[in-house]
Design brief:
Helix content is 41%, strand content 18%. With 223 residues, the protein is of the alpha/beta class. It has a single domain, classed as Alanine racemase (TIM Barrel), CATH 3.20.20. It binds pyridoxal-5'-phosphate.
Length: 223
């Protein structure tokens, strides 16, 4: 079913929206099936799990890290990660920069914003983002590149609320683009939308959607 699911979802995505197949908790054979159906971008939220899958699967896969990243786990993913969606503090960005430098890489990152009503979701607010982007420390970071923003909407059936939160993330993106990244074409990504809400996210300007269960089926545990 993975192939059919992928095809169904791809058919609904307009040009310019990229599908990240969120494969967390799923076995390598499931990822291989998606790969065989043409999928090349996978999202994971645990560093060691992502490293192990990276080692087991074809080398032309682009690995996106989408979960809360602990600083002591950064080293496992820096050698190969394509995009980190979940930079939620200045400290984390600094630690990623430091590790990327050791590997002589420039690692693409998104700033994760807290846009949901739930307290539990990680992310920056605008003030924290400005502090980070205005800091001397940030100006000296040569081994990370900020490519856009990421956010997770509230887990709710209330579509108006979800839409409002995605609109908010788009406004954050537009503001940062104007104030900090106007001349930097790499700042172009808005990562928002999951299995239940990605159509709304696309309508509100998502460039990356992170879809898991709609491709791979329900997960055994929530993570
Ligand atoms: C698990 C996860 C997803 C995908 O969730 P689904 O509802 O299964 O599509 C997307 N983004 C993040 C950050 C996740 O942790």
């Amino acid at each position: 079913m993975i192939k059919e699911n992928l095809e169904k979802i791809r058919a609904t995505l307009p040009v310019g929206v990229t599908l990240v197949a969120v494969s967390k908790t799923k076995p390598v054979i499931d990822l291989q099936e998606a790969y065989d159906a043409g999928q090349r971008i996978f999202g994971e939220n645990h560093a060691l799990e992502m490293r192990d899958k990276h080692e087991a699967l074809p080398t032309d896969i682009q690995w996106h890290f989408i979960g809360h990243l602990q600083t002591n786990k950064i080293k496992y993913i820096i050698p190969f990660v394509t995009l980190i969606h979940s930079i939620d503090s200045a400290n984390l960005l600094e630690a990623v920069n430091k590790e990327a430098k050791k590997h002589d890489r420039v690692v693409d990152c998104l700033l994760q914003f807290h846009i949901a009503m739930e307290e539990t979701k990680f992310g920056l607010d605008m003030e924290e983002a400005r502090l980070l982007l205005d800091s001397e420390a940030f100006k000296e970071m040569q081994n990370v590149r900020i490519c856009g923003v990421m956010g997770m909407a509230t887990f709710t059936d209330d579509e108006d609320e979800v839409r409002k939160e995605f609109k908010h993330l788009k406004e954050i993106y537009d503001t940062l683009k104007a104030d900090y990244f106007a001349d930097l074409p790499q700042f172009k990504e808005i990562s928002m939308g999951m299995s239940d809400d990605y159509p709304i996210a696309v309508e509100e300007g998502a460039t990356l959607v992170r879809v898991g269960s709609k491709i791979f089926g329900a997960r055994n545990y929530n993570s």
